[in-house]
Request: fold
Amino acid sequence: MAIAGSPSAAPQLHVLAVDDSLVDRKVIERLLKISSCKVTVVESGTRALQYLGLDGENDALGFDSVKVNLIMTDYSMPGMTGYELLKKIKQESSVFREIPVVIMSSENVLTRIDRCLEEGAEDFLLKPVKLADVRRLKDFIVKGKVKEGEKRSHKRIRSIDCSSPLSATCSPMSLPCDPSTSLLSPLSAKKARL
Amino acid sequence: MDTNHSRRQLAAMKQSLFDQGLLDEQFIQLEELQDDANPNFVEEIVTLHYRDSSRLISSIEQALKERNLDFNKLDTLMHQFKGSSSSIGAKKVKAECNLFREYCRAGNAEGCMRSFQQLKKEHAALRKKLEAYFQVSRV
Reply:
């Protein structure tokens, strides 16, 4: 996750934006950069899947694969529509289906909106997308990440409390200071010898 | 002194474009995305728009020459044109696009041709006015 180290630092979201219109790509990129997001823009659903490593070409580059916190896609695109891209992502049985997907469209068609939301879209934005829309979206995603982080740290604390006496939980850090141990960094090995 | 004058001139030009119904709120939204690091963002976007839209106009022109009009194709092309126009706040041009699409959906060839002529006029007129606007903004 593209989140800064310290828990108090504001997380930087990585947004993947998909739009076949060059003008719209430039605008959404600017909107996101101004909102302090890391942005990757692509021109089609196919390219988006390639970027995520979901195109079946090469197995996603392991856990080094691209981390994306949000996908914003145009609805009407030649080839693969935004709706089709949404479906493909939500069909993934992995981390990818967890990524929130937002649909952007210039057409305010209720049936279209319903269909997208039913398929799992996080939100449906009317174009042209405004700065206020992006800010609202970002706040929502960040809140979700914070909650997720809190849940995870609570889990960790709980498991430490429940574990047996420390000597039994052989973690590298609890081993006696042996300079020859390869687990220790050269610097701490030096310190141990002093 | 000079910059104050051109700033006032710029504001007047912009107001006029709004008063004539040629631009809408989206143009202001784009201006808010400008800063010291990106001082010409609006002009860049508008330039990209005119590059895109010129290409689309040619395609639509070609499509309108066909013996049997492909209204689906025309509607798709116009949808793209409308989207691009909407993104720069081209209010009147956007309205002409909607009219054209209505004629498409009604299968009205005559209506399409007529509204397309009008659309081209509006498109060219706005382009000229925006060029003048950016020229003053660069002073």
Chain B has one domain: 2-138.
